[in-house]
Amino acid sequence: MQPREKGSSASEERQASRPRPAKLALVIPTLHEASNILPLLCRVRLALESCRIPYEVIVVDDDSADGIDSLIASISAEDPRIRLIVRHGERGLAGAVLRGWAETDATCLGVMDADLQHPPELLPKLWYAMAAGADLAVGSRYAQGGSLGGWNVSRHLVSRIAIWMTLPVQRSGLRARDPMSGFFMVRRDCIDGLTFQTSGFKILLEILARADLRSVVEVPFNFGRRYAGASKAGPRVAVEYLQLLLRLCRQKGRTPSRAECAEARAELEKQDVVRN
Ligand SMILES: Nc1nc2c(ncn2[C@@H]2O[C@H](COP(=O)(O)OP(=O)(O)OP(=O)(O)O)[C@@H](O)[C@H]2O)c(=O)[nH]1
Ligand SMILES: [Mg+2]
User: Fold this and answer.
1) Residue 250 burial (CB < 10 Å; 0-12/13-18/19+)?
2) Atom of ligand 1 nearest to the CA of 96
3) Lining residues, ligand 1, CB within 6 Å
4) Would you say the C-alpha torsion 199, 201, 204, 206 has a positive or negative sign?
5) Which residue, judged by its Cα, is nearest atom 4 of ligand 1?
6) How many angstroms does the Cα of residue 106 sit away from the middle of ligand 1?
7) What is the pLDDT of residue 9?
8) pTM of the prediction?
9) Quick one: which atom of ligand 1 is closest to the CA of 87?
10) Is residue 224 within 8 Å of residue 182, measured between CB atoms?
11) Alpha-helical regions (H) of the chain
């Protein structure tokens, strides 16, 4: 694991003093993933059982009408921690993830893809990083020990360029090597009150740029091959990514973080400018 924190021993102390999250909610966004869901849920449940933590798994499907509802119903009947939410008339990976997170009281919010490119066996490591006090734990293909699996040279290059473009919006001391990962966990209180872009795939980048984070930990993993079905990434995802990047670039420098707001408020209170 590679901690990326604000650098001082004070930040390490703060991380160690963070209360352990009480419950994990893992959201799995799906669009035409019925052929992947059973092997995925089987491995996810085994991995999470090994952590001995309260958890729930929320599959958020955008009306794929591919039989995923009856597959999940058969599991939910014996294990109500596995839930399905079907969105009608809506599309977008990020929006699906946010919807799942809105439907849980869990204090630790997670996400992973349904196509088994994200190995469920990494979930305990992400959870332990959160339990140790990280605000954000990222399954990382670019951290030392991680890999991109069978990507060809051109996809590799596009990915590198896309990551390089994030450098102006990522914050010093909180940078992730894999800001485009779709496999991560974040503390709920770090994103409470923020409104995110619901279109597109790259919710992690927006969290890295805007959430009230004190520590980011990257856990390396080997990106697998899609188990079954077809990719949903395409030119539209690239356009939505560029829109997000532009917006984050414009916002940078003028949106103070919640911690900065709290600091400013405390200062004003000291000066008797603000009263409760
Ligand atoms: N609910 C929902 N899920 C989506 C949507 N678009 C993609 N997903 C899911 O998001 C996850 C990631 O999509 P993928 O198609 O695997 O994208 P990718 O991993 O970047 O691309 P590949 O490497 O080609 O597989 C999968 O679980 C998809 O089913 C959407 O509009 N709505
Ligand atoms: Mg995929």
Assistant:
1) exposed
2) 1
3) 29-31, 33, 60-62, 91-93, 96, 113-115, 117, 182, 201, 226, 231-233
4) negative
5) 93
6) 23
7) 56
8) 0.86
9) 1
10) no
11) 9-17, 34-49, 68-76, 93-102, 123-131, 153-164, 188-191, 203-210, 235-251, 258-270
Domains and their CATH numbers in the chain: 2-270 (3.90.550.10)
Q: For residue 191, how far is the Cα from the chain centroid? A: 11
CA 113 to ligand 1: nearest atom: 27
Q: What are phi and psi of 38, to 5 degrees?
A: -70, -50
Residues bordering ligand 2, an ion, CB closer than 5 Å: 113, 115, 117
Over residues 228-244, the mean pLDDT reads 86
Segment 11-19 mean pLDDT: 65
The amino acid that residue 224 corresponds to is G
* End-to-end C-alpha distance for the chain, whole angstroms: 42
Q: How far is CA 19 from CA 7, 132, 247, in A?
A: 20, 9, 33
Assess whether pLDDT exceeds 60 at residue 186. Answer: yes
Tokens of 49: 């059982």
Atom of ligand 1 nearest to the CA of 232: 15
Smallest CA separation from ligand 1 atom 12, residue: 113
Amino acid at residue number 65: A
Query: Residue range 203-218: average pLDDT?
Result: 95
Task: Ligand 1 pocket test: pick from 36, 40, 115, 154 the residue with the most ligand atoms within 8 Å of its Cβ.
Answer: 115
Q: Residue 196 corresponds to which tokens in the numbers above? A: 């995110």
